[in-house]
Amino acid sequence: MSSQPAPAPLLIACALGIEQLALRAGDRDGAGGPVTVLRTGMGPAAAERSVTRMLADPALRDAAVLATGFCAGLAPGMHPGDLVVAEETRDPSGTTACVGTDLLVKELGRAVPGRTVHTGPLTGSDHVVRGHERSDLRATGAIAVDMESAATLLSAVRAGERPVAAVRVVVDAPEHELVRIGTVRGGISAFRVLRSVLPAFFEWHRSLLLPRR
Q: 204 pLDDT exceeds 50?
C-alpha cells in the first residue's frame, strides 16, 4: 500500500505582535495542511530575512506563503476594517504575481460578511506613508501600501516556486489617517477583522492541494 504524500504546509507571515495575536485567536480547524504563523518583524529587510530563513527549513521548503496584517489604504473611500486582496505585490526590488485572488475574495466575503474587499496592486514601502506620499503611490495604480508584503512574497518565490498571496486589513486610509482622532477605533475594527480571516486562508490553501485537471 503506497502512503499518501504529506499535505503541503502553509506559512502565514505577519510583522507585528498584535497581528500575530489576532491570527492566533482565530480558529484553525480545517486547515488543508500544517500551518505556521511567522512574526517577521517590521520592515522589508526583516521580512526578507525571516521568510528566507523559515523556507530554508526542509519542513517548509514547499510551503505556500500568505502575507497578512494591517495596511494603509490609498484609494478614496476606504475605511478601517476594509480588506485588500493583492493581485500583485511590488516594490523597488520587483513585482510578484499572486495566486487565487478570486477565491480569496469569495471566501473573505463568507468569513467576514459585510466587509468591503478591494483588489489591486499592493505596494511596499520602507517607512510609514503619510500625506502626499499616498497620492504619489496611488498614481502608480496601487490601492494600498504596507512595509512587508512585497518583500515577503518576493523572498518566497526566490526560495523556490510556490503559490503566494497577500491579504491585508486597512487600519488607516486617506480620510482616516493614523494621526487623527478615531485611530483607536479604527485599530480595534481592523484587529477584529484580522481575527476572522483565517477560514478564508485555509480555503485558499486547501484549493491549492486539489488535483489539477
A: yes
Burial 165-192 (b: 16+ CB within 10 A, else e): bbbbbbbbbbebbeeeeeeeebbebbbe
Regarding pTM above 0.85, the answer is yes
Question: pLDDT digit string (tens) for 139-174?
Answer: 888 999 999 999 999 999 999 999 999 999 998 876
Hey, is 108 helix, strand or coil?
helix
DSSP 176: B
Local structure of residue 212 (DSSP, 8 states): P
d(CA 175, CA 187): 14
Output the average pLDDT for the chain.
Answer: 86
Please give the C-alpha separations between residue 165 and each of 7, 33, 100, 182, in angstroms, as whole numbers.
Answer: 18, 17, 7, 30
Q: What is the DSSP-derived secondary structure letter of residue 173?
A: B
List the alpha helices (DSSP H) in the chain.
17-24, 44-55, 101-111, 132-138, 149-158, 183-195, 198-209
Neighbours of 27 (CB within 10 A): 11
CA–CA separation, 31 vs 199, rounded Å?
Answer: 8
- What backbone torsions phi and psi does residue 90 show, to the nearest 5 degrees? -150, 145
CA distance 150 to 91: 6
CB atoms within 10 A of CB 58: 7
Give CA separation, 127 vs 43, 64, 123, 145, in Å.
Answer: 7, 27, 12, 10
